[in-house]
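Practice problem: predict the structure.
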Amino acid sequence: MERLKITKCLVQDDGTIDIQDLSFSTTINPEKYSHNFKISYSGGKPTDPAPLGLPSKTPRYAGTDPETLSFDLIIDGTGVVPETSGKTVAGQIDALKEIAYTYNGEIHEPNVVLITWGSGLTSFFGRLNSLNIDYTLFRATGEALRAKLSLSFMGYDTPIEGALESNKSSPDMTHLVTVRAGDTLPLLCQRIYRDPSRYLKVARDNGLDGFRELVPGRELIFKPIR
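Answer:
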C-alpha cells in the first residue's frame, strides 16, 4: 500500500530544490485531502463609480495565490497498527514536526517539504501553514495513545520558477501597442496595467491632445510602472 509521505527538502542558492533522505510516512493514510487554488482580484468599493471609458466597474486581477494542501492524519500509539509498535504518539509527532514545523537555523525558516502519495499526489512542494493536534485516547497515566492531526501546507515556488510562470505581459515591462478600431485609452490601460485610470499619463507619454478618439494603426507606448 502506498503511504502518504512528507519529505524534507533543501533549497539551494541557485533556486534548485534538493530532496533529502529524512521523511515521515503515514501509517494510517488520510481519508481525503483538499487541494485548493485561489485567484485574488481587486476593484475598490462596490459604491465606487465605474472607470471612465468602461461600461461598468469590474474586478481587476491582482495575483494568483499559492496553492494549499490540507488533510488529517491519525497517529496511533496503541500497538494495534503494526508499523507503530513500540512507537509513542509523542515520538511520532516530534518526528513530523522536525521535518515540517521546527525552525531551521541554517536557513532561518521552516523547511520546504515534498508531499507525495502514490500516483495521485506526486509532487506538491510547500511549507507547513498550520498544525492542529487533537489527542483522543490516553493511558491511565495521561500519556496520549492516539491523536488526530490537521495539517495545512502552502505551496512553494522557487524564485526561478516564479519568474518562469510570471505573466510576460506584466505592467512592469514597456509595451508597444498598435491601436485597433474601437480601442480607447482607458480600455488599453485596463488591458495592460489592469488600471484604466492611467490613461492621462499614457496620453502625455505619447503626446496626445485628446484620448477619446484614437486613430487605428497608430503605435502607442505604455511605459512600465515603477
